[in-house]
Design brief:
Structural class: mainly alpha
Distance between the termini: 29 Å
Shape: rod-shaped
Order of helices and strands: HHHHHH
Protein name: LuxR family transcriptional regulator
Number of strands: 0
Largest sheet: none
InterPro entries: Sig_transdc_resp-reg_C-effctor, Tscrpt_reg_LuxR_C, WH-like_DNA-bd_sf
Strand content: under 5%
Number of domains: 2
Keywords: Membrane, Transmembrane, Transmembrane helix
GO molecular function, one term: DNA binding
Pfam family, one: GerE
Number of helices: 6
Helix content: over 70%
Length: 172
């Protein structure tokens, strides 16, 4: 769920909490005013209003707990996303170091991983498309893969393997 949508959900919950709190205050005030008037049939009316007010208060408490959980979940997801980005960057650097890629090959390899086509890479780097194709061939040879899809699969397999290790540790 995008952060903006989560923020809207949190804001909506906050508005509901405020509305329910105001309703509860109204009913509590109404009960107090009715108690001062006193009539036999009024007691049933007061009991119903008191139950409704208690229900609203319970709803406010429940929504406050839900809002807090939602805020904590969003913070946790943002932390996890930052960690995943950091792990991916470390993984990329590890493989690039292991393969002995030059700085220009690293740039090209990173753009390949991002899904950028050779012509666009050449344009962004200010080089000829043939130069980029040659760099791609060197990258694939150093990584011992046959092309873009295999290069990407090396990273995905490693990320999934790390993710499974972390999942297994958490489950144990």
């Amino acid at each position: 769920m995008p952060v903006l949508t989560q923020e809207r959900r949190a804001a909506t919950l906050a508005v509901i909490i405020l509305f329910q709190a105001l309703c509860a205050l109204f009913f509590i005030g109404d009960v107090i005013v009715d108690l001062q008037g006193g009539d036999g049939l009024v007691e049933l009316h007061l009991a119903i209003e008191a139950c409704v007010a208690l229900g609203l208060v319970a709803g406010v408490v429940f929504l406050m707990v839900e809002l807090r959980i939602l805020i904590q979940r969003v913070a946790s997801m943002e932390t996890g996303l930052r960690a995943a980005r950091g792990e991916m960057a470390q993984l990329v650097d590890h493989f690039f170091d292991q393969w002995g890629l030059t700085p220009s090959e690293r740039d090209v390899a990173l753009m390949i991983l991002k899904g950028i086509e050779n012509d666009a890479i050449a344009e962004m780097r200010g080089t000829a498309p043939g130069t980029v194709r040659a760099q791609c061939a060197k990258i694939y040879a150093k990584a011992q893969v046959d092309g873009r899809s295999q290069l990407l699969s090396v990273f995905l397999e490693e990320l999934f393997a790390q993710g499974m290790e972390q999942f297994e540790k958490a489950a144990a």
